[in-house]
Amino acid sequence: MIRDILVYPDQRLRTVAKPVEKVDDSIRILADDMLETMYDAPGIGLAATQINVHKRVLVIDLSEEQNDPLVFINPEYEVLDGEPEEMQEGCLSIPGYYEKITRVAHVRVKALDRNGEPFEKDLTGLMAVCLQHEVDHLDGKLFVDYLSSLKRGRIRKKLEKQLRQES
Ligand code: GNR
Ligand code: NI
Question: What is the atom index within ligand 1 of the atom nearest the CA of 88?
Fold first, then answer.
């Protein structure tokens, strides 16, 4: 099922998500809904927070063909290489805005898969950036938080105006 994506400055995007206690069918359905919503948007990642579910689940698929879905439950990462990398980021919850954000280039993530099995992966490049972006969502953070308050304020005002015009 395709779910609605919350848009900044919706305060529900600031919720800190809770760890998943048991990976059961309800979590697998959530992950499937998130993948469907992400593919429909389309985007390369989605955190449960963005569909107003405050559980630590995120999905990523960097493939062009939308055939390489990755599900991360209770993800935790450590920085492997503090080397900063600047990349243009977008966010489905901040539609129409793309900004250069600096993040570390190399992380090791530990998470549970859709069967509740633990796995570990070293990530670089766009994959590392996307993982950090999605974990930020689970902690109630957005890429605009890394911008100046002036830039953030401009984006917020424009999105608020759009929202008023739609309703
Ligand atoms: O679709 C998305 N593209 C993207 C590009 C650069 C860095 C991060 C991302 S994630 C984003 C989808 C999204 O909002 N995930 O939370
Ligand atoms: Ni995002």
Answer: 6
**Tens-digit pLDDT profile for residues 20-38:** 999 999 999 999 999 999 9
Q: Specify whether 134 is catalytic.
A: yes
- Supply 122's token pair: 């070293």
- What distance in angstroms lies between residue 136's CA and the mean position of ligand 1's atoms? 11
Catalytic residue among 83, 86, 134, 160: 134
Q: In whole angstroms, how far apart are CA 132 and each of 28, 76, 116, 154, 162?
A: 22, 10, 21, 24, 28
Residues with CB under 6 A from ligand 1: 43-47, 50, 89-93, 129-130, 133-134, 137
The closest of 25, 69, 29, 76 to 53, measured between CA atoms, is 29
Q: pTM of this prediction?
A: 0.98
